[in-house]
Automatic annotation (TrEMBL):
Domain of life from the UniProt record: Bacteria
Protein name in UniProt: Haloalkane dehalogenase
Gene Ontology CC terms: membrane
Protein's UniProt keywords contain Hydrolase: yes
Species for this entry: Chryseobacterium indoltheticum
Signal found in the keyword field: yes
Length: 331
């Protein structure tokens, strides 16, 4: 009887998954056929001897409190997944700036570009300069946490407060795992499918518990894999994987003087290159229940909010807990 129930459950999950994947629509490299939750603007960047377009949303407050906050996305995402956060911040009087980094979302996908966190930070600063914003709060999630850290170190006079939500880069991955060339990373990216992305998110983000509200953020990257532009997207993903691995920020947390909040889902086990590390070392990587505390100890005066049994995406998985921690720090 138990085996029969298991078989039924597996068949049911398979049918549900197949239906969900069937709903995924092909998306081109710059998501022109996908509507973001707020009006999208573009900044023309003259960068590395080429003209690029950097997309961003500028969400105005209903009644301004005079403060601006910038939300920086992770590697497997774009600015759209900040929709609820931005709406609530706007309701509380904040102006909200949400960039898509070059190589992500609706921004340009250059095939010849020297990616670095310093370059991404500089590109982001160009948007703020155009908007004449010289003081703001910065929130970065996942890879966005590495961008936010570099931005804060480069432009400390512009950052009032820094919030890092399950940032990657809390450890130096190259001290654990062997190097992967960009070409190898590219071939790996080309193998991604809607199903492989979902399996990854189930494992690292949601503890094998899928909810309907997770689907839109899967569809955005899964849709790319169905479009002829995907090799272009995959190449940019490989280039940014390379900087995550080779440009650690962990050694510079001690240099941050900005008031900082760490929001850490302690179930998270994300670690870049884990599959290339020795088997006996892999279980020691991405231990966020330890990494959060270590990072707090490095950033003088920082505050740590640990969210027990929460994965890599607190602002999607447990929004209310995330929001309470965030707003308590910035209000």
């Amino acid at each position: 009887m138990t085996n029969f129930k298991n078989i039924v459950a597996i068949i049911s999950f398979s049918i549900t998954s197949s239906f969900a994947f069937a709903q995924v629509k092909p998306l081109n490299a710059t998501l022109t056929n996908y509507q973001y939750p707020f009006e999208v603007h573009f900044k023309d960047l003259k960068s590395q001897n080429q003209t690029l377009k950097m997309a961003y949303m500028d969400v105005k407050p209903k009644k301004s409190n005079g403060k601006t906050i910038m939300l920086l996305h992770g590697k497997n995402f774009n600015g759209a997944y900040w929709e609820k956060t931005a709406k609530d911040l706007s309701d509380k009087g904040f102006r909200v700036i949400i960039p898509d980094q070059i190589g992500f979302g609706k921004s340009s996908k250059p095939q010849s570009y020297q990616f670095s966190f310093a370059q991404l930070a500089s590109n982001t600063k160009a948007i703020l300069d155009e908007l004449k914003i010289d003081k703001l709060i910065v929130l970065g999630h996942s890879m966005g946490g590495m961008v936010a850290t570099r931005f804060t170190l480069m432009y400390p006079e512009n950052v009032e407060k820094l919030i890092l939500e399950n940032p990657i880069g809390l450890e130096d991955y190259k001290t654990f795992a062997k190097y992967q060339t960009v070409d190898e990373a590219y071939q790996s990216e080309l193998k991604n499918t809607a199903e492989s992305y979902k399996n990854y998110q189930l494992k690292f983000y949601y503890d094998n518990k899928w909810k309907a509200e997770y689907q839109p953020w899967l569809d955005l990257i899964a849709g790319w894999t169905l479009h002829k532009d995907y090799p272009q997207v995959a190449w940019n993903a490989a280039l940014t994987s390379d900087i995550i691995f080779n440009q650690p920020v962990v050694y510079e947390f001690k240099n941050i003087k900005t008031p900082t909040l760490l929001i850490i889902g302690t179930r998270d086990r994300t670690a870049i290159g884990k599959d290339r590390a020795p088997k006996e070392i892999q279980p020691t990587m991405g231990q966020y229940q330890e990494l959060g505390k270590k990072t707090q100890a490095q950033i003088a005066g920082s505050k740590l909010v640990e969210l027990e049994n929460v994965g890599h995406l607190p602002h999607i998985e447990v929004y209310d807990k995330f929001w309470n921690a965030l707003y308590d720090f910035i209000k």
